[in-house]
Amino acid sequence: AFHYLLKPCDSAKLYQVIDRAIGKLNVSKKYHLIKARNETIRLKLSDIYYIECCRKHIIYYTKTEKYDTIDTLSNVYDQIKDFGFFQIHQGYIVNFDKVKCFRQNDIILDNDRVVMMSIRKKKETLLAYSRYLEEYLWSIIYWSAWWKAYWRYSCSICFSEHLQCRNTVKTYIS
After folding, report:
1. φ and ψ at 90, to 5 degrees?
2. Mind listing the pLDDT tens digit for each residue in 86-144?
3. What is the spatial distance between Cα 160 and Cα 173, in angstroms, rounded to a whole number?
4. Residue 119, Cβ neighbours under 10 Å: how many?
5. Does the pLDDT at position 13 exceed 90?
6. Are 3 and 23 in contact (CB under 8 A)?
7. 3-class SS at 44?
8. DSSP secondary structure string, 55-123?
């Protein structure tokens, strides 16, 4: 169980719980395995801010650490592109979930790091980011509508059961 709501529940509390649930469903359970030095590390995708390629070295940047491994950027991108990551430059992949803003040919991330965006890929990057935001917002709207419908349905069942139960009690008492 993620969270229990006691009836009657106000809509603000319901929406707050729905938002938390959607956040948990998105990327929190997905991982990417990398081999750094002599160990295999399981990185949570939601922890990765961006990935940089320097020759044959791939560097994963998280909030607190960076991990260096040997691979190709195209191989890494093929593995994670369906999870909100986009190659914005010949040497960079960015987690769209960590983007704070765009400034000319740079992307500013939540941790205030500046990542250079290719001039050739700028239009493609902005289109991909707008599609990402659109999908994210639609998923919120979908799940929000689903929860509203579920909540109304369960409330109507509980209400009708309550009425049936009350009528049964009345007949039993009389």
Report:
1. -60, -25
2. 999 999 999 999 999 999 999 999 999 999 999 999 999 999 998 888 887 776 666 66
3. 20
4. 10
5. no
6. no
7. strand
8. TTEEEEEESS-EEEEE--HHHHHHHHGGGTEEEEETTEEEEGGGEEEEETTEEEETT--EEE--STTHH
